[in-house]
C-alpha cells in the first residue's frame, strides 16, 4: 500500500517536505495516474460525452474576491514575486477557478484565491536562504497560514489554506480525500506549468487569461527554477526534477499564447 498522499499539515511540519522511499514511489504512481486520468478525460471530451462540453464556462464568471486578507496578499506578492512568477500565480487562479466551474467543484473563493497567489512564495528571493532546508511549498503554506491567523481566521481554516498549498506539487489528488481548494490549485498550477488538462478550458478562456496575465518569460524562469534552484534534497521539487519535469515545462503547449 502506498499510504496517504504526502503534503498534510502534520506531515509537512514533521518532515520539512522530505519524502521517504515509499512516498517517492507514491509520487511516481501519481505521475502515471495523472497521465492516465488526463488521457481518459481528453478522450471522453473528444468523443463528445464529457459533461464539460455541456457546461457553459465563461471567463467573466470568475471574479477576484475582495477582503482585507486578499488585498494584503495582493500587495505582498506584488512586492516579492518577479513579474513572470506573479503572472503565473494569477493565471493559476484563473485556470483553477474555471476548472472548478467546468467540473462543478465548489471551493471557498477567498481561500482558493489566497492559496493560488501564495503557492510559490517559497521560490522568492525573500526565502532563498531556506529553500535547501525546507521544501518551497511548505514555506509558502506556512506564510499563508500565518497571514490567515493574523486576519482572525479559525485555525482549522488556516490549516485548510496551508494544505491547499502544501499539496499542490502532487501530480494527482483524490477528490474524495482532498479539499476543493487543494484540487483546484493543483489543476491551475499544473495546467499553467505543463499544460495538464488544458482541454477543460475553451480557447476563448485561455486567450482571455493570457491577455490579462501574459506568460512572457515564464517558461525560462520556471525551467531555471526546476533545474537550478537548490531545492531540498528528497522534496517534491527535487524529485520531480529528476523525473523530467523541466522537459514537460519546456514543452508546454500553452506557450503558444506567449505572444498574445
From TrEMBL:
Residue ranges of every copy of the HD domain listed in the record: 86-186
Pfam families per UniProt: HD (PF01966)
Domain of life: Bacteria
InterPro entries: HD_domain
Gene3D superfamilies on file: Hypothetical protein af1432
PANTHER family associated with the record: CYANAMIDE HYDRATASE DDI2-RELATED
Name of the protein described by the UniProt record: HD domain-containing protein
Organism: Halomonas salina
Amino acid at each position: 500500500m502506498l499510504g496517504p498522499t504526502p503534503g498534510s499539515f502534520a506531515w509537512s511540519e514533521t518532515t520539512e517536505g522530505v519524502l521517504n522511499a515509499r512516498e517517492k514511489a507514491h509520487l511516481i504512481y501519481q505521475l502515471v495516474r495523472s497521465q492516465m486520468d488526463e488521457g481518459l478525460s481528453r478522450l471522453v471530451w473528444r468523443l463528445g460525452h464529457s459533461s464539460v462540453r455541456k457546461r457553459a464556462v465563461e471567463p467573466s464568471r470568475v471574479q477576484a474576491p475582495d477582503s482585507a486578507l486578499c488585498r494584503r496578499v495582493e500587495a505582498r506578492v506584488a512586492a516579492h514575486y518577479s513579474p513572470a512568477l506573479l503572472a503565473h500565480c494569477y493565471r493559476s487562479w484563473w485556470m483553477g477557478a474555471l476548472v472548478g466551474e467546468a467540473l462543478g467543484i465548489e471551493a471557498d473563493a477567498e481561500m482558493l484565491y489566497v492559496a493560488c497567489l501564495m503557492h510559490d512564495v517559497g521560490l522568492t528571493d525573500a526565502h532563498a536562504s531556506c529553500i535547501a532546508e525546507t521544501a518551497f511549498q511548505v514555506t509558502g503554506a506556512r506564510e499563508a497560514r500565518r497571514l490567515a491567523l493574523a486576519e482572525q481566521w479559525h485555525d482549522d481554516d488556516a490549516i485548510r489554506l496551508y494544505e491547499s498549498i502544501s499539496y499542490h506539487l502532487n501530480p494527482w489528488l483524490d477528490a474524495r480525500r482532498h479539499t476543493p481548494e487543494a484540487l483546484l490549485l493543483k489543476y491551475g498550477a499544473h495546467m499553467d506549468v505543463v499544460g495538464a488538462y488544458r482541454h477543460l478550458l475553451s480557447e476563448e478562456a485561455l486567450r482571455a487569461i493570457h491577455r490579462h496575465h501574459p506568460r512572457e518569460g515564464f517558461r525560462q524562469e520556471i525551467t531555471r527554477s526546476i533545474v537550478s534552484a537548490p531545492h531540498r534534497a528528497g522534496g517534491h521539487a527535487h524529485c520531480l526534477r529528476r523525473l523530467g519535469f523541466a522537459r514537460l515545462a519546456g514543452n508546454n503547449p500553452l506557450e503558444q499564447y506567449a505572444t498574445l
